[in-house]
Amino acid sequence: MTIDFSGQTAIVTGAGGGMGRAYALELARRGAAVVVNDYGGGVLGEQNGSSAPAEAVVAEITAAGGQAIANGLAVGTAANARAIVQTALSAFGRIDVLVNNAGTGIAGPFTAHDDEAIERHYATNLIGGHHLMRAAWPHMAAQRHGRILNVSSNGALGVGGNAPYAAAKAGMLGLTLDAAIEGRPLGIVVNAVMPTSYSRLIEQIPDPSTVAWFRDNLPPEKVAAAMAWFLSRDCTETGRILLTGGGRLSSLIFAETGEIFDAEISAERVAQRIGEIGDESLLTPVHNQAEAGARYFRHLPWTAAETPDFGPDVERG
């Protein structure tokens, strides 16, 4: 099997360097026309930028015989999202693939950052990706085909001193899991990735030995190589949280620990049985809200005639 993107158009944000550049080059190498988006700002979200990094990647792609166009808009607003998608439509006539890769860092103590820095961080790392999905979604739905990859981070699991980044990247997981359910009947596949790779963000880590380990073992090209299949027409896997780097690939799931049911539950009874509640030897995977809700039925039986449905009144897969 050869994974091929000929005739398809991809948007990759934050593609002026690092993992974004690797995604853009991998997709172009496999035949996609690529919108290389990068506003050229600093890794910490500074506002001084230009389209020069995006244009440099476009030059690489075209020199190798591929098709690409640069876009220098910053992600984070609905207007810019619509303009980025319009760049793809105007240049190549369609949009098949969206890689929400753009991101910035903002490490430090919990109260260290001013209001503007926090809001700018969420705009780049979460809101911008949501707006881009909203802008691309109708076009993907109309052609009954779309592939979206949202770049999250294992930082969403918590590291300390990184709260805005963790929260934004955790938000990308919820965005992915919900959109995957809604997108399934429309032919839109949505997955998330927690990459482990050398990047400009890694260069901000104070420990030089850690930075060197990333640089020597975890090139961004290995992430792009693994993720290319999940962006292809051949892939129907959706709603996955993938972990990859250096050739390693796995998926992350949510799971419930052991449970108790006590109709007379109280703070005191919880204190007495906290060990049972946190028992990780009895893990049960939970893939969506419906599965989480169904866990209650063994104790609180469903008696209505209709099948239980925990979601809103929209078409879902």
UniProtKB/TrEMBL annotation:
Its EC number is 1.1.1.100. Transmembrane segments: none annotated. Gene3D superfamilies: NAD(P)-binding Rossmann-like Domain. SUPFAM superfamilies: NAD(P)-binding Rossmann-fold domains (SSF51735). Keywords: Oxidoreductase. This is 3-oxoacyl-[acyl-carrier protein] reductase. Belongs to the short-chain dehydrogenases/reductases (SDR) family. It is an enzyme of class 1 (oxidoreductase). GO terms for molecular function: 3-oxoacyl-[acyl-carrier-protein] reductase (NADPH) activity.
